[in-house]
């Protein structure tokens, strides 16, 4: 599992039309944790456990994280 970026989290949340509070609830983390994670364009400065919870919540909502293979990291909705 590759590390996701704050930019990917922001974009994923927008794609599923969740507020930061809705993501925090879905991931069982604090709203301040979501805000800190999204403040970075690169890897967030939050605990790996919280990052995993955020990723799982967004993936459960239908988001697929695309790792950076030289063309930049991204997101998309699962088929």
UniProtKB/TrEMBL annotation:
Q: Per UniProt, which keywords does this protein have?
A: Plasmid
Q: Which CDD domains match?
A: HTH_XRE (cd00093)
* Source taxon at top rank: Bacteria
Q: Which SUPFAM superfamilies match?
A: lambda repressor-like DNA-binding domains
What protein am I looking at?
Helix-turn-helix transcriptional regulator
Organism of origin:
Ensifer adhaerens (Sinorhizobium morelense)
Give the taxonomic lineage as stored in the record: Bacteria, Pseudomonadati, Pseudomonadota, Alphaproteobacteria, Hyphomicrobiales
């Amino acid at each position: 599992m590759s590390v996701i970026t704050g930019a990917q989290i922001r974009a994923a949340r927008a794609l599923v039309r969740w507020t930061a509070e809705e993501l925090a609830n879905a991931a069982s983390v604090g709203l301040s944790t979501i805000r800190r994670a999204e403040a970075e364009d690169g890897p967030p400065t939050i605990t790996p456990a919280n990052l995993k919870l955020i990723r799982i919540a967004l993936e459960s909502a239908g988001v697929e994280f695309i790792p950076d293979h030289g063309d930049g990291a991204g997101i998309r909705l699962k088929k």
